[in-house]
Amino acid sequence: MTMTAKERAERTARETDALRAGEVAAAGLKEALARVGVVIPSLQAGFPVNGNGRVELGGCNAGLATRLAEVLNAAADGLPELRATTE
User: Fold this and answer.
1) Residue 44 in 3-state DSSP?
2) How many CB atoms lie within 10 A of CB 18?
């Protein structure tokens, strides 16, 4: 099936919006992590998938992963509303 020019433009706009959403999310996550002393150098926006923005977390060393877990656990302990339910 051939897309019309309008359909192509709408698809491009959705992809651009999704890419921008990933960039904003990655920047926000970097900033939030930096506030608690966690820096993941490979964290970046990824290419959108199925119209959704993505963030590539990449890899980190064991010490950094441990620090990230500590920060997340402290947040969950201090803010119970953040905890995931396991029901």
Assistant:
1) strand
2) 19
